[in-house]
């Protein structure tokens, strides 16, 4: 059986409701990567405060290096947790040139 959800938008936040109760939120955020254009991400948060998922909506990152941030292997590390400290709770993607 499908659950019926209602949504209410406020700025960059989308609130989800089922039977009048909040079930989660989706935030559309921009983050600075290596490329000149910021990455645009959609981040889903459950009513319990955990990350439900992360989706890259736009990115100009370097193919083969920065675009690894768009893979399920990278994005999956955030699901089911939060808040995160870089280097402690989440792995970063880096590349070196010389």
Care to describe what's here?
By secondary structure, this protein is mainly beta. 4% of the residues lie in helices and 39% in strands. The protein has one helix and five strands, in the order βββββα. The protein has one helix spanning 72-75, and strands spanning 6-10, 13-18, 21-31, 39-46, 51-58. It has a five-stranded antiparallel sheet with strand order 1-2-3-4-5, with no helix packed on it. β2 and β3 (21-31) form a beta hairpin. The longest helix has 4 residues, at 72-75. The N and C termini lie far apart (56 Å). The relative contact order is 0.14. The mean pLDDT is 80.
Provide the fold topology:
Blueprint: E1 6-10, E2 13-18, E3 21-31, E4 39-46, E5 51-58, H1 72-75
Antiparallel strand pairs: 1-2, 2-3, 3-4, 4-5
- The multimeric state of the shown protein is single chain
Q: How many strands appear in the DSSP assignment?
A: 5
Order of the strands making up the biggest sheet:
1-2-3-4-5
Tell me the distance between the termini.
56 Å
Question: Which stretches are poorly predicted, pLDDT < 50 over at least 5 residues?
Answer: none
Query: Level of helix content?
Result: under 10%
Mean pLDDT across all amino acids:
80
Strand content: 35-45%
Q: Indicate the structural class.
A: mainly beta
Number of helices: 1
Report on the biggest sheet.
5 strands, antiparallel
Instruction: Characterize the overall form.
Output: globular
Give the C-alpha Rg.
Answer: 16 Å
The sequence of SSEs as H and E is: EEEEEH
């Amino acid at each position: 059986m499908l659950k019926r959800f209602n949504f209410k938008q406020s700025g960059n936040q989308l609130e989800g409701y089922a039977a009048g109760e909040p079930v989660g939120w989706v935030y559309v955020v921009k983050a600075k990567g290596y490329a000149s254009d910021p990455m645009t991400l959609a981040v889903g948060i459950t009513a319990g405060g955990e990350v439900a998922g992360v989706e890259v909506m736009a990115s100009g990152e370097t193919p083969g290096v920065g675009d690894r941030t768009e893979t399920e292997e990278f994005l999956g590390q955030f699901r089911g947790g939060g808040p995160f400290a870089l280097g402690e709770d989440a792995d970063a993607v880096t590349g070196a040139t010389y």
